[in-house]
Amino acid sequence: MTPEKAVPRKQREFGRETLRAAASLVAPIHFAPRDGAGNTAINNGTIFFLDLGQGPFGVTADHVLRAFLNRKRAEPGLRCQIAELPFEPEDRLIDRDDYRDIATFRIEADELARLGNAVHRPRYRWPPKPPERGQGVLFAGYPGCERRLVGRRKVEFGICLAAPVATAINDRAVICQFERAHWIDAFGSAPPPENRFLGGLSGAPLWTVSGRGGKAAWRLGGVISAFSQNWDLLFAKHAACILPDGRLTTRLPGGA
After folding, report:
1. Is the pTM above the cut of 0.90?
2. Which pLDDT score, from 0 to 100, does residue 26 have?
3. Mean pLDDT, rounded, for 92-121
4. In this structure, which of 158, 206, 216, 245 has its CB flanked by the most CB atoms within 10 Å?
5. Which residues make Cβ contacts (< 8 Å) with residue 112, sequence separation at least 6?
6. Which domains are delineated in the chain?
7. What is the mean pLDDT of the chain?
8. Are 38 and 152 in contact (CB under 8 A)?
């Protein structure tokens, strides 16, 4: 983590505001038995919200939905929530793609108000281009290792925020190598130790962020799909397959 004294004041302030904005765009999506069994019975991912001109919808990783459906077949009483909001993903599903590992869901304006989440409304041309190799990116999400049970039915989620570099790009994904020495401590908490499993980040947005005149310009760079615990690698699937109505297309620019 970058020591405070090693980061110029303006850069620290920009980092704090940018990371706070990233945190406002995501929420934990989690499922557990209705009887409120312990922390080990809870699974979670991360969800965020887009409005591409045809109304807002939620986006997460398809394998988060798949895990919920698989468990629900064995546990009919399984409940799903976005933060404290009850949510039935099967009833809200717009589209899903196992290969792209993205799923999209309908969300109502009053539900977003209850959640208190911001919605990303792009001011750039859609579909978004992925970040370039060597470009700085940003993400915020809810790894399961930072989750704790604070009541029989109440869960507290710790957020993980980081600004790594896109170290490799291929037709399927953006790959980021964690460099903890370059993390900015925006909230006074240490980053997860090396080789700690960060499952739960799946579904979080990966952003490319540039700043001019003290203002940040955001662009969606991908949807987080996997984390390699052994190699500290983060994988994000390309977001260009997401259409303005929330449906997904298999035809991407450049044939990706």
Report:
1. no
2. 95
3. 96
4. 206
5. 49, 56, 119
6. 4-244 (2.40.10.120)
7. 81
8. no
